[in-house]
Write a structure and sequence with these properties.
114 residues; signal; Substrate Binding Domain Of Dnak, Chain:A, Domain 2; mainly alpha; 2 domains
Length: 114
């Protein structure tokens, strides 16, 4: 009986601790929601360049640069969602530098899919 009582007490304490941790995590995630709404300027610029420009993906170098810039955009978005704005800005800057190379080839038509 004494073992059952101590086991019940341990489970109750563990459940109480879990609830306290969950409440603390919820308050942290609420503060992260406010941070998620603020995207770094570099991330906004990279998103605009990726969606607004049309690249000639038949050129191997251009295709690889656009794919790598899209990868950096995805990583920067994850960092921004986590509240790591400095890391997000660094990754977005890498993507922007790839898209700003002078030998990128662009398409004139509007029928391009990435």
């Amino acid at each position: 009986m004494k073992t059952l009582l101590s086991l019940t007490t341990a489970i109750t304490l563990a459940a109480g601790g879990f609830l306290l941790n969950a409440q603390a995590d919820e308050s942290v995630s609420t503060s992260n929601t406010a941070a998620m709404s603020v995207m770094p300027v570099e991330l906004q610029q990279l998103e605009a360049k990726l969606t607004g420009m049309q690249y000639d993906l038949s050129d191997r170098n251009t295709k690889l640069r656009v794919q790598r810039a899209a990868y950096y955009f995805a990583i920067a978005r994850k960092h921004a969602d986590s509240g790591w704005s400095k890391m997000a800005a660094e990754q977005a800057t890498r993507g922007l530098s790839l898209l700003q190379l002078s030998n990128m080839q662009y398409l004139q038509s509007a029928n391009v899919q990435m």
